Amino acid sequence: MTVIKVLRCVFTEDMPAIKNKITTMHELTLCQSAFDIIEQQAQANNVKRVTGVWLEIGALSCIEESAVHFCFEIVCRGSVAEGCALHITTQPAQAWCWDCSQAITVSAHDAGCPHCQSHNLRVDSGDSMQIKQIEIE
């Protein structure tokens, strides 16, 4: 078994997404982008089969894990990644409070600074989905 380390961002969201009936379309597009990267890596490394993929989803990414599992299985059908294990971890969001000059951890879009309760925050990380690792045979 070989492991390919990948640190490529699949998606970064600048504005909060509005959750509605098309949520799965959002995840389907993200999974297709992730699959494209996986396929490129597989071709570049002459891979016959992908056995595992590790994704990291930011706490503020508005990405539903269950929808990612569902969509990922669909986009991988008939490919070198069909049937591979999908491992998902959630990354806490990191932000900077402009009012009290503190680095903080944020768990929701409407969360305020735990030090001064300000909502004047700059999100530095935790609003994206990234492929962290691809396992191959």
From TrEMBL:
Which is an annotated GO molecular function term of this record?
Answer: metallochaperone activity
InterPro entries for this protein: Hydgase_Ni_incorp_HypA/HybF_CS, HypA/HybF
Could you tell me which PROSITE patterns the record lists for this protein?
HYPA
Identify the residues that bind Zn(2+).
97, 100, 113, 116
Task: List residues binding Ni(2+).
Answer: 26
Alphabetical GO biological process terms: protein maturation
Protein name per Swiss-Prot or TrEMBL: Hydrogenase maturation factor HypA
Q: What role does it play?
A: Involved in the maturation of [NiFe] hydrogenases. Required for nickel insertion into the metal center of the hydrogenase.
Gene3D superfamilies xrefs: 3.30.2320.80
Q: What Pfam family is a match, any one?
A: HypA
Question: Which species does this protein come from?
Answer: Hafnia alvei
Family the UniProt entry places it in: Belongs to the HypA/HybF family.
**What are the entry keywords?**
Metal-binding, Nickel, Zinc
The gene is hypA
